[in-house]
Design goal:
The structure holds 2 protein chains of 2 kinds. Chain A has 1 helix and 16 strands. By secondary structure, chain A is mainly β. In chain A, the strands form 3 sheets. In chain A, strands 1, 3, 4, 13, 14 and 16 form a 6-stranded antiparallel beta sheet that branches. Chain A has a 5-stranded antiparallel beta sheet with strand order 2-15-5-12-7, with no helix packed on it. By secondary structure, chain B is mainly beta.
Chain lengths: ~290, ~400
């Protein structure tokens, strides 16, 4: 049976070895700025870094086994995150973390150009296929210069199949390095200060993105990434492990689909360069 | 139905997939002054800022997550999804949020289900006379792809309504029964027997127009007779100067008693405390109340607001826009320091599992103990599950 029919079945899964375990150790090399969100899937360590490298502007997917390890496919059973922890000795890595399922990305969007860039959607969402609950991140893959009031918007297809245009949004005002999320700078006039891009009214998610427009270019290159947020954890200070278990400390163990590429983003307190993040994840299936 | 046991909870979430995580973000803009409550629905972020739109001032405007009509140019609340009309009830399993600001801590976040608002602009903000809220219209019935009602004001689609008459209601409509509107134009709508039918466009058929004078009256969309509902004034566009008092008011309570009054003659904030998103009667000074207007003793909720008067103090000037909102509080979350992710587990830690009604328009209110830096991001996650 998929999932857990009752709490006892969940305990049985743990006792009968229906679990998988993954280790996290990230050592970011790219500097970041306090308050920006950073994509740690691009950081070295375990799992290995990925660089959103594929044909420019053509939708591509990441291979699940290269993300945070969650084991083999378990269909028709359902795999759920039941435990995870993080710890860092690095001041810059103190802050909020989101565990994401990285679904799809559009590589090498040119942030120097103000021409409209059409995105190829031959490859479609591998999971959450309607797009409901799917959010968008703009991740630098080449450094951007930044600048006040530099803006962008994009066209997309929402969860109901409707063509929409996102509100015009502001890039980070200060220069941002590789792996920085370019909409996340805080205390910027007109800025979002959030890891996910704003969507038009009525949208609960994104199925695909069809075009990108820089209203005023910020420089550099970026990947536009479609993700499904799964879980949140907060590290309040250095060298103090934080652990979260489901369902006794938090209800709603998030489902992890077969083939999911799991990765972390975080809201850094200072540069994450040369920092260390360690942790683990555990999954169970019914 | 909700969850019959912990076993049922984990079964519904993991086997049946009845779980949803909703991420949203808002910006504190403009900067918050100390000691005030704010309604973040009007702030930039995801979902989009609302402008409390309305073609005519003081018209009861129903709020739902569904939006999507000419009046709701913006989506007001958290986009929740889910299918209304089923037997399942949605519940908040856990909630988390943080605010990153150079100054202003601590904060208190309050999640509310916004039921409706009455928009005020022009002389309705600057005047000192009594403002009469529009909760009902008389209507005529005709045939146009079903029973079509024609009236005066532009009511929002999916409004919950009831009907009365001096004669006989059109066939298909009954007294003391809830219906939901399907807006057709600024002065017409069709009517459905449930919210689900309204969304599906399944309208009541036309048989006859009835007789006498018919009246359609707005209802609180999700809490019968407004049980547990509270009211507050929030600024959308800052007036130029002033700060009047709520010197008189009249509302109907949940028991149906009319001519109830908000207490204490709350003072509306002077211009410095009357910026966009600010709940203008909240604050540290005497005569301030927040986030909600004090109800008259013994009242358990607000069914409708009939009128109010701002006078005394100093009348507002300029071209401000204010919304008089009615909302049902759901939960509170303390944000002690900047950046700290506060989370509350509503199953194990505080087993209240607040119910989120179909169509709920979830909105965050935020209390800033200190002056809070402009453009500070507020990020939140709401986890929901449903049984049935």
């Amino acid at each position: 049976m998929a999932g857990f029919a009752h709490v006892g079945e969940y305990i049985d899964a743990l006792e009968n070895g229906k679990t998988s375990y993954g280790q996290i150790r990230k050592i970011p090399s790219q500097a970041s700025t306090a308050g920006h969100w950073v994509d740690l899937s691009m950081a070295a360590g375990q799992p290995i870094a990925q660089y959103y490298a594929a044909a420019p502007l053509e939708a591509a997917v990441l291979t699940g086994m290269r993300g945070i390890f969650h084991g083999d496919d378990r269909s028709p059973s359902q795999k759920h995150l039941v435990e995870w922890s993080l710890m860092t000795p690095t001041a810059g890595l103190v802050g909020a973390y989101h565990l994401l399922d990285f679904l799809l990305y559009y590589p090498f969007v040119d942030l120097d150009s103000t021409d409209e860039q059409a995105l190829d959607n031959t490859v479609t969402l591998p999971r959450y296929t309607t797009g409901d609950g799917v959010r968008v991140m703009l991740v630098a893959v080449a450094p951007t210069a930044g600048g006040a009031s530099l803006r962008f918007n994009f066209d997309y297809v929402d969860q109901d199949g409707n063509a929409k245009t996102a509100p015009t949004q502001t890039f980070n005002a200060t220069a941002a390095n590789i792996a920085t999320i370019l909409s996340s700078q805080q205390a910027v006039s007109g800025g979002q200060g959030a890891p996910y891009l704003l969507l038009a009214s009525g949208s609960t998610g994104v199925r695909s993105i069809t075009a990108w427009r820089n209203v005023a270019a910020v420089g550099g290159l970026a990947a536009v990434v479609l993700v499904k947020p799964l879980a949140t954890l907060w590290l309040p200070e250095v060298s103090t492990p934080v652990e979260l278990t489901y369902p006794n400390l938090k209800p709603g163990p998030p489902r992890v689909y077969d083939g999911a590429y799991l990765g972390l983003i975080m809201n850094c307190a200072a540069t994450v360069a040369a920092g260390t993040l360690a942790g683990h994840v555990r999954f169970a299936w019914g | 139905m909700g969850f019959t046991s912990q076993d049922d909870l984990i079964n519904q979430i993991t086997v049946n997939g009845k779980y949803r995580r909703v991420d949203n973000s808002k910006i504190t803009s403009p900067a918050h002054t100390a000691g005030g409550w704010h309604c973040l629905a009007g702030g930039a972020g995801y979902p989009n800022a609302t402008t409390y739109p309305g073609a005519t001032d003081l018209v009861f405007t129903t709020c739902t997550e569904l939006g999507g009509d000419a009046i709701s140019a913006t989506l007001l609340g958290l986009p929740l999804g889910g299918s209304p009309g089923g037997s399942a009830t949605k519940h908040i399993l856990s909630v988390g949020a943080n605010l990153v600001a150079a100054a202003g801590a601590p904060w208190q976040a309050k999640l509310v289900d916004l039921q409706a608002y009455y928009r005020l602009s022009g002389a309705n903000v600057t005047g000192t006379g009594s403002r009469t809220c529009i909760n009902s219209n008389t209507f005529t019935a005709s045939s146009s792809s079903g029973l079509l009602l024609t009236y005066t004001n532009d009511f929002n689609t999916y409004s919950k309504v009831r009907f009365t008459t001096s004669g006989t209601l059109p066939t298909g409509l009954s007294l003391a029964t809830d219906y939901w509107t399907i807006r057709v134009s600024t002065t017409t709508c069709r009517v459905a027997t449930s919210l689900a039918n309204a969304i599906a466009g399944t309208a009541i058929a036309f048989t006859d127009a009835g007789s006498g004078t018919h009246t359609m009256t707005m209802q609180m969309p999700r809490y019968q007779d407004g049980v547990g509902c509270e009211a507050f004034f929030v600024v959308q566009t800052q007036p130029t100067a002033g700060g009047p008092n709520l010197s008189a008011s009249s509302y109907t309570n949940t028991a149906g008693t009319a001519a109830r009054a908000f207490q204490g003659s709350p003072t509306m904030g002077a211009t410095a405390d009357a910026y966009a998103t600010r709940i203008i009667h909240s604050g540290n000074a005497a005569g301030r109340y927040g986030p909600f207007l004090p109800r008259q003793g013994g009242d358990t909720g607000i069914k409708s607001i009939e009128s109010f008067t701002w006078s005394g103090g100093t009348a507002y000037t300029g071209t401000g826009v204010v919304a008089l909102c009615v909302a049902r509080p759901l939960l509170d979350l303390a944000l002690p320091v900047t950046g700290m992710w506060s989370e509350r587990d509503l199953v194990n830690q505080l087993p209240s599992l607040p119910q989120v009604m179909d169509g709920a328009c979830l909105v965050w209110l935020l209390f800033s103990a200190g002056a809070t830096t402009n453009n500070s991001p507020f990020n939140a996650v709401v986890d929901l599950g449903w049984g049935g």
